[in-house]
């Protein structure tokens, strides 16, 4: 019989799906996946609820006694004030709903490097910590919904006596059906369109990103880190950066990605050419590609979100992350980022999502 019960909040997202896949390999876990529209997944008990509706949470979780909660969801709002109001309420409502069971041992919260960079509306502006980002650098003096989410977890942990961990990935890459905020899928679709039309495969970001060191986080690496921190006593009540463990420059990676699609990478342009601009007319092109190759998804908007990739690749500063804290405590997993891309592209092709 399972001895641990996981509640994955945001189970349809890229983090939640990959965490569920990892936990499902261990019979010691009973796994619940909570989302507004949960997916039917073997080995996962689907729960439907709205995190902003306490009544729906109370109904969905009435018989659930989780030992470990993994919070991996957020709702983007037009302003950071609204991000704070909505996303902190989601965490607060969830933790209040599970409190009566008295079963929770650990809560793991996934945030990200906006902890160090600031929210989208002040992204990369003002005084920022030096790179590589380290956990000891703490919070910026700006409003940030990540901080509000953390405070909800800390408050509930103090009240109810469970442990916690905070996980700060860089850009997440991995396979997840129905998840749009995935640079890998966006770049795969972009490369496919370039190959089909003969357009140049042009890096859409800044010269700083092109030339600086950077890193990324494979969703499988993040899943391992979440599991490790939630069952390792030394990781209790700690905040962590989590990346693949390698560093690269986009000037190198862009050539690697182009080669996978049999493309020639274009030189870095003099001006930033964001994907939102490059792909503004691409919906009918993708529909044509999908019809020609009998792809599973002819709607480009259902696959990609150029704004998210543009936000990452358009940064005007170097973004690279230190992993020493996790290493010192025993997390030693490593994932080459180019292999992360290639693994994803291979799975997208096998799923008939790209030709």
From TrEMBL:
Gene3D superfamilies: NAD(P)-binding Rossmann-like Domain (3.40.50.720)
Recorded superkingdom: Bacteria
Domain PRISE-like Rossmann-fold: residue ranges: 66-355
This protein's name: Nucleoside-diphosphate-sugar epimerase
